[in-house]
Amino acid sequence: MSSGNDHCTSKYLLNGLNEPKPLPGCNSSAAKKTGSGWFVSAFLVVNATLGAGILNFPMAYHQAGGVLAAVIVQTVLMVFVVIAIYIVCYCADTKGSNTYQDVVLSICGPKAQLACAISIAITEFCTCITFLIVISDQWEIIFLNLSYDLYCNSNPFYMTRAFIITVTSIVFILPFCFSKRIDYLNYASIIGVIGIFYVVGLVAIKYFLPHENQGVITTRPHSWIDVFLVVPQICFSYECHVCIVPIYSCMAKRNMREFSKTVTLAMILSALIYTFTATLGYLQFGDNVTNDILLSFNPTAEVMVAVVLLAVKAYTTYPIFCFLGKSAFDTVWGMFWKMSPEEILHREKTRRVIITLVWFTLTLLFSIYIPNIGVAVEILGAYMAVFIFVFPGLCLLKTMQNRIETGEKQPKTVHVLKGIAIAFLIVGVFIFGLTLSQSIMKDIRGVKPDSSIFTCH
């Protein structure tokens, strides 16, 4: 199947695990010049990993029963997250795949690929909506702080939610959504990561400066099952597996050793940022913490800078998830119409433009009428557990089973990896079922929007 960045890696036939072999007539040196280095790729992974989740992490710590319980759960899940990344990239190397759904196709077959592509398209569509909601929330905070009376009493059209999301998204997001490659966002990703570092620094400084504890600090969960309330947030925040394959395929040196540097740097940065911000943010506000940590602070100048940077971060991250969703939808489209590879390539540009416009328009409309990201984060977190656990587990299980069925004597490592794959499947199904049920039950009881000093009264 075709993908949005096929030209980045279709030049190579993978010969074994670590050695990309150029096709005849391919200028490998030229190909390397167009690829990304491991360091820059790490920032692309970090930018895709860090996002709206950083705002909601302190609240997740509170719901899980405090810092200690949440950190323990986060550490355990991080092990699975990193292993799943290597599983996906290992399978991509063995089959020469360029996208997550193509990895599933090459190992598990077309039916599994179709299910995977549909899941990716839906998940990335919802994720794009959350980024637009974050953008609108940040603009609302700016308006409330700069011109409270005008915004709350007159509410002119140019300050309305619909107008500000529409205009700014068309200007700052839409032009970057038509690209055929994902690595063109490398430098925008670095800017986004810098913005996240500022937010982390702000939370830390506010904590260490004299301040009043505004709420009760929970030190243990009320029930053992409460610790799983942080799981959707962790899955939502650390799920970068869908974008890992296209990022990996666009590296100048596509091999597991080089990519391990990318993964190590990206995961260390992400874990430190999330844990640091969540811990200090929660300890500062206790049970009065809001779903958006920035809404808990007084609207000082430095807080407003953080608000603007979070908006910039959302603007630069939306195109990444839009790219991934479009790639998955393109796969579904080709399978539905039973298009040949030649037919897929023939009208690729026209199809890409149409899908981008439809995708952008629909996410824009949904974001205007959905005012709160809390519910979306919980539901998406449950579904993203599928990409972290279930599909990687299926791919690894199938790969190891195929080796065992050859009849040749296999090393113990193969059987160990098969056991790991089964563990991934069991954990993934358990997490998906439990967290989704918890989210639905919580929604049925009713979800109240955040209230803060920024809100019109």
Strand order of the largest sheet: 1-2
- How much strand? under 5%
The helix/strand order is: HEEHHHHHHHHHHHHHHHHH
Mean pLDDT: 80
Assembly annotation: single chain
Distance between the termini: 54 Å
Summarize the biggest pleated sheet. Answer: 2 strands, antiparallel
Which structural category do the helix and sheet elements fall into?
mainly alpha
Question: Treating each run of at least 4 consecutive H or I residues as one helix, how many helices?
Answer: 18
Radius of gyration: 22 Å
Low-confidence stretches: 1-33
The coarse silhouette is: globular
- Annotation, overall tally of beta strands: 2
**Helix coverage percent of residues?**
over 70%
Summarize the structure in short.
The protein is an all-alpha fold and 457 residues long.
